Amino acid sequence: MGKFLNEFREFAVKGNAVDMAVGVIIGGAFGKIVTSVVNDIIMPPIGWLIGGVKFTDLKFELPQVELPGIEKFDPVTVNYGNFLQTIFDFIIIAFCVFMLVKGINRLSKKVTKAKETPAAPPAPPQPSAEERLLTEIRDLLKDK
User: Fold this and answer.
1) pTM for the complete prediction?
2) What would the pLDDT profile of 75-90 be if each residue is shown by its tens digit?
3) DSSP letter string over 11-54?
4) Which of 65, 89, 64, 62 is nearest to 78 (CA)?
5) How far is CA 124 from CA 22, 120, 129, in A?
6) Distance of CA 139 to the CA centre of its chain
7) Which of 50, 83, 115, 128 has its CA at a distance of 20 to 30 angstroms from the CA of residue 18?
8) CA 6 and chain centroid, separation
9) Would the CA dihedral through 123, 129, 132, 134 be positive or negative?
10) Are 92 and 38 a contacting pair, CB within 8 Å?
11) Confidence label for 117 from pLDDT (cuts 50, 70 and 90)
């Protein structure tokens, strides 16, 4: 049992698992912010421009069928306004994620280019004293 707990602890504190958890938490919070932006800031002016329509109130009521001996139910509605609102949320979140990924890719390309830039080649090593002496002897022997 101790080995299992140690393995779980190692997994839980690894950078990838912690990074993923942070990403999920921040993503959830970001989704709430974008939903608020869409519901509270973007959609009211759009509704106002098209005649004071509140998108969440848009619905289609299905006709009621009255059958003898069956109790009457509340009318059934198809709430397509909520669907439109959710589509707007999705489009804005998808656009924001696209811009975020595009920015990260641009930064990673800059970092990769900086790493790929070759450094100046190192100067060749200076010959040792023994090599210089041997070179002088060789040159003297050639001259004779």
Assistant:
1) 0.51
2) 888 988 888 888 888 8
3) HHHSHHHHHHHHHHHHHHHHHHHHHHIIIIIIHHHHHHHTTS--
4) 62
5) 49, 12, 15
6) 68
7) 115
8) 31
9) negative
10) yes
11) low
